[in-house]
Design brief:
18% of the residues lie in helices and 33% in strands. The protein is built from five helices and ten strands; from the N terminus they run βαββββαββααβββα.
């Protein structure tokens, strides 16, 4: 007798054929708060798309506003041009990954890493509304350092005209994580090889001031507290 399918809570993304991994599906997660946290902690995403029949993957900065991701670049950038020219947009796959630890096993086969990742499938669309474009650019700046957008000169008309922004809705999304220790075979446990996890952590050094700072300019509080 088949059981009743479990309903997805409202705070999760519904799994799809593309977001359910074929390998280690037990590591997949669809919780929105978890996905947002992984995205918000990162700096660089990888944007994949097809250009002239061949796959292309580009590293780039991104920003999140609610259930949307924004990516910016030059108006001459091919993927950003394609997002504006294609109807209804440019099919893309966007990924963000954090490596949290190196997992060193007794056997070469079982070496791994502890990680947190997010994969987003969808259609990227050109942002043409001026107000949305400004909000997106503020989000991109604040994603690098929260509070920075209000502490910098906003883009002028010339800069806005030279900048393209695309948005990607968070509809078809999954997270995938590996945590824990070594998964060695029982017969390998007695081998004389060190095994365990080497944790990795992100850190910040003291900010280095530009030599041309205006007199009296002090280090802002959002930088002194960065990384705490």
């Amino acid at each position: 007798m088949q059981g009743t399918p479990r309903q997805q809570p409202v705070d999760t993304y519904p799994p799809t054929e593309r977001t359910v991994p074929t390998r280690s599906p037990h590591r997949a997660a669809y919780d929105k708060a978890l996905v947002h946290a992984i995205l918000d902690e990162g700096y660089v995403c990888h944007l994949g798309f097809v250009r002239d029949g061949a796959p292309v993957v580009l590293p780039t900065l991104y920003g999140r506003v609610g259930e949307r991701l924004y990516v910016h670049g030059s108006t001459g950038s091919r993927p950003l041009r394609a997002a504006g020219q294609a109807d209804p947009g440019l099919p893309v796959c966007l990924t963000v990954t954090h490596v949290d630890g190196l997992v060193l096993a007794r056997s070469a086969f079982h070496h791994s890493v502890n990680y947190r990742s997010v994969v987003v499938h969808g259609t990227a669309r050109d942002v043409t509304d001026p107000e949305e474009k400004r909000r997106a650019l503020d989000a991109l700046v604040d994603h690098v350092v929260p509070g920075r957008a209000a502490d910098s000169r906003p883009a002028n008309k010339k800069e806005l005209a030279a900048t393209a922004v695309i948005r990607l809705d968070l509809d078809e999304v999954s997270a995938k994580l590996r945590t824990g220790g070594v998964n060695d075979e029982p017969e390998d446990l007695a081998l004389p090889h060190w095994a365990g996890v080497v944790p990795l952590r992100k850190g910040y050094d003291a900010p280095l001031a530009d030599p041309h700072l205006a007199p009296g300019t002090e280090l802002p509080g959002y930088l002194t507290s960065l990384g705490r």
